[in-house]
Protein backbone atom coordinates (compact mmCIF):
# COMPACT_ATOMS: atom_id res chain seq x y z
CA UNK A 1 0.00 0.00 0.00
CA UNK A 2 2.78 2.44 0.95
CA UNK A 3 4.34 2.19 -2.53
CA UNK A 4 1.18 3.02 -4.47
CA UNK A 5 0.86 6.61 -5.74
CA UNK A 6 -2.94 6.42 -5.56
CA UNK A 7 -2.73 5.49 -1.87
CA UNK A 8 -0.52 8.51 -1.28
CA UNK A 9 -3.04 10.70 -3.09
CA UNK A 10 -5.82 9.52 -0.76
CA UNK A 11 -3.47 9.99 2.21
CA UNK A 12 -2.55 13.53 1.19
CA UNK A 13 -6.20 14.42 0.62
CA UNK A 14 -6.93 13.16 4.14
CA UNK A 15 -4.00 15.06 5.58
CA UNK A 16 -4.72 18.35 3.84
CA UNK A 17 -8.38 18.38 4.82
CA UNK A 18 -7.39 17.54 8.39
CA UNK A 19 -4.83 20.36 8.53
CA UNK A 20 -7.42 22.82 7.29
CA UNK A 21 -10.04 21.68 9.80
CA UNK A 22 -7.77 21.68 12.83
CA UNK A 23 -6.22 25.04 12.00
CA UNK A 24 -9.73 26.49 11.64
CA UNK A 25 -11.05 25.00 14.86
CA UNK A 26 -7.93 26.06 16.75
CA UNK A 27 -7.43 29.57 15.40
CA UNK A 28 -10.66 30.93 13.85
CA UNK A 29 -11.83 32.74 17.01
CA UNK A 30 -8.38 34.27 17.51
CA UNK A 31 -8.17 35.26 13.84
CA UNK A 32 -11.58 36.92 14.04
CA UNK A 33 -10.70 38.81 17.23
CA UNK A 34 -7.56 40.12 15.50
CA UNK A 35 -9.84 41.48 12.75
CA UNK A 36 -11.97 43.29 15.35
CA UNK A 37 -14.80 40.80 15.86
CA UNK A 38 -16.04 40.72 19.48
CA UNK A 39 -14.89 37.58 21.30
CA UNK A 40 -18.42 36.49 22.25
CA UNK A 41 -19.44 36.57 18.59
CA UNK A 42 -16.48 34.41 17.57
CA UNK A 43 -17.76 31.63 19.82
CA UNK A 44 -21.08 31.68 18.01
CA UNK A 45 -19.27 31.68 14.69
CA UNK A 46 -17.33 28.58 15.69
CA UNK A 47 -20.63 26.89 16.60
CA UNK A 48 -22.02 27.85 13.18
CA UNK A 49 -18.84 26.46 11.59
CA UNK A 50 -19.42 23.10 13.29
CA UNK A 51 -23.17 22.98 12.63
CA UNK A 52 -22.91 23.83 8.93
CA UNK A 53 -20.09 21.29 8.60
CA UNK A 54 -22.25 18.55 10.12
CA UNK A 55 -25.16 19.32 7.79
CA UNK A 56 -22.91 19.39 4.73
CA UNK A 57 -21.26 16.15 5.78
CA UNK A 58 -24.69 14.55 5.69
CA UNK A 59 -25.45 15.95 2.22
CA UNK A 60 -22.19 15.32 0.33
CA UNK A 61 -22.65 11.53 -0.07
CA UNK A 62 -25.11 12.28 -2.89
CA UNK A 63 -22.12 13.38 -5.00
CA UNK A 64 -20.03 10.35 -4.06
CA UNK A 65 -22.15 7.90 -6.05
CA UNK A 66 -20.87 6.51 -9.33
CA UNK A 67 -17.42 5.90 -10.73
CA UNK A 68 -16.11 9.45 -10.36
CA UNK A 69 -15.93 11.49 -7.18
CA UNK A 70 -14.53 14.62 -8.87
CA UNK A 71 -17.69 16.68 -8.26
CA UNK A 72 -17.64 15.77 -4.56
CA UNK A 73 -13.94 16.65 -4.33
CA UNK A 74 -14.53 20.06 -5.91
CA UNK A 75 -17.55 20.83 -3.69
CA UNK A 76 -15.50 19.76 -0.67
CA UNK A 77 -12.24 21.52 -1.47
CA UNK A 78 -12.92 24.75 -3.35
CA UNK A 79 -14.97 26.37 -0.54
CA UNK A 80 -11.97 25.96 1.77
CA UNK A 81 -9.87 28.15 -0.51
CA UNK A 82 -12.64 30.67 -1.10
CA UNK A 83 -13.40 30.98 2.61
CA UNK A 84 -9.77 31.39 3.63
CA UNK A 85 -9.09 34.03 0.97
CA UNK A 86 -12.34 35.79 1.77
CA UNK A 87 -11.46 36.01 5.44
CA UNK A 88 -7.94 37.19 4.56
CA UNK A 89 -9.02 39.97 2.20
CA UNK A 90 -12.61 40.84 3.22
CA UNK A 91 -12.74 40.12 6.96
CA UNK A 92 -15.83 42.27 7.51
CA UNK A 93 -17.82 39.46 5.88
CA UNK A 94 -16.43 37.05 8.46
CA UNK A 95 -19.59 35.02 9.04
CA UNK A 96 -20.05 34.47 5.29
CA UNK A 97 -16.47 33.21 4.94
CA UNK A 98 -16.83 30.97 7.97
CA UNK A 99 -19.97 29.40 6.50
CA UNK A 100 -18.26 28.92 3.13
CA UNK A 101 -15.24 27.36 4.83
CA UNK A 102 -17.42 25.08 6.93
CA UNK A 103 -19.20 23.82 3.81
CA UNK A 104 -15.85 22.63 2.52
CA UNK A 105 -14.67 21.36 5.87
CA UNK A 106 -17.77 19.29 6.57
CA UNK A 107 -17.73 17.80 3.10
CA UNK A 108 -13.98 17.16 3.04
CA UNK A 109 -13.92 14.79 5.99
CA UNK A 110 -16.72 12.67 4.55
CA UNK A 111 -15.10 12.65 1.10
CA UNK A 112 -11.70 11.71 2.56
CA UNK A 113 -13.09 8.82 4.57
CA UNK A 114 -15.29 7.68 1.68
CA UNK A 115 -12.37 7.61 -0.75
CA UNK A 116 -10.75 4.96 1.44
CA UNK A 117 -13.58 2.54 0.70
CA UNK A 118 -14.44 3.73 -2.79
CA UNK A 119 -10.90 3.49 -4.16
CA UNK A 120 -10.13 -0.03 -3.01
CA UNK A 121 -11.20 -3.34 -4.53
CA UNK A 122 -10.23 -6.15 -2.16
CA UNK A 123 -11.37 -6.79 1.38
CA UNK A 124 -7.87 -6.15 2.78
CA UNK A 125 -7.18 -2.85 1.02
CA UNK A 126 -9.62 -0.59 2.91
CA UNK A 127 -8.03 -1.51 6.24
CA UNK A 128 -4.52 -0.95 4.91
CA UNK A 129 -5.40 2.32 3.19
CA UNK A 130 -7.35 3.53 6.22
CA UNK A 131 -4.36 2.90 8.47
CA UNK A 132 -2.04 4.71 6.10
CA UNK A 133 -4.33 7.66 5.32
CA UNK A 134 -5.41 8.28 8.89
CA UNK A 135 -1.97 7.75 10.44
CA UNK A 136 -0.17 10.11 8.07
CA UNK A 137 -3.17 12.41 7.70
CA UNK A 138 -3.59 13.06 11.39
CA UNK A 139 0.17 13.44 11.87
CA UNK A 140 0.02 16.24 9.29
CA UNK A 141 -3.03 17.64 11.05
CA UNK A 142 -1.19 17.72 14.37
CA UNK A 143 1.47 19.96 12.85
CA UNK A 144 -1.03 22.34 11.21
CA UNK A 145 -2.13 24.45 14.19
CA UNK A 146 1.45 24.71 15.50
CA UNK A 147 2.72 25.75 12.08
CA UNK A 148 -0.08 28.32 11.79
CA UNK A 149 0.84 29.77 15.18
CA UNK A 150 4.51 29.90 14.21
CA UNK A 151 3.68 31.67 10.94
CA UNK A 152 1.61 34.17 12.91
CA UNK A 153 4.51 34.76 15.31
CA UNK A 154 6.90 35.36 12.42
CA UNK A 155 4.59 37.60 10.37
CA UNK A 156 2.60 39.23 13.21
CA UNK A 157 -0.60 38.67 11.26
CA UNK A 158 -3.08 36.04 10.17
CA UNK A 159 -3.29 36.88 6.47
CA UNK A 160 -0.30 34.67 5.61
CA UNK A 161 -1.83 31.77 7.54
CA UNK A 162 -5.12 32.19 5.68
CA UNK A 163 -3.32 32.30 2.34
CA UNK A 164 -1.46 29.14 3.37
CA UNK A 165 -4.81 27.45 4.06
CA UNK A 166 -6.05 28.51 0.63
CA UNK A 167 -2.92 27.09 -1.03
CA UNK A 168 -3.37 23.82 0.86
CA UNK A 169 -7.01 23.73 -0.27
CA UNK A 170 -5.95 24.20 -3.90
CA UNK A 171 -3.48 21.32 -3.48
CA UNK A 172 -6.26 19.26 -1.88
CA UNK A 173 -8.47 20.02 -4.88
CA UNK A 174 -5.81 18.98 -7.40
CA UNK A 175 -4.96 15.78 -5.54
CA UNK A 176 -8.64 15.00 -5.07
CA UNK A 177 -9.40 15.45 -8.76
CA UNK A 178 -6.64 13.00 -9.62
CA UNK A 179 -7.85 10.34 -7.17
CA UNK A 180 -11.53 11.20 -7.72
CA UNK A 181 -11.43 9.94 -11.28
CA UNK A 182 -12.33 6.36 -12.04
CA UNK A 183 -9.26 4.72 -10.52
CA UNK A 184 -8.53 2.37 -7.67
CA UNK A 185 -5.58 2.09 -5.34
CA UNK A 186 -5.03 -1.56 -6.22
CA UNK A 187 -4.89 -1.13 -9.99
From TrEMBL:
Annotated ranges, domain Major facilitator superfamily (MFS) profile: 1-187
Gene Ontology MF annotations: transmembrane transporter activity
Gene3D superfamilies assigned: MFS general substrate transporter like domains
Cross-referenced PROSITE patterns: MFS
Cellular compartments annotated: Cell membrane
Recorded topology in the membrane: Multi-pass membrane protein
Spans through the membrane: 7-31, 43-63, 70-89, 95-118, 130-152, 158-179
Annotated Gene Ontology cellular component terms: plasma membrane
Top-rank lineage group of the source organism: Bacteria
Key words of the record: Membrane, Transmembrane, Transmembrane helix
Cited InterPro entries: MFS_Cyanate_Porter, MFS_dom, MFS_trans_sf
UniProt protein name: MFS transporter
Source organism of the structure: Bifidobacterium leontopitheci
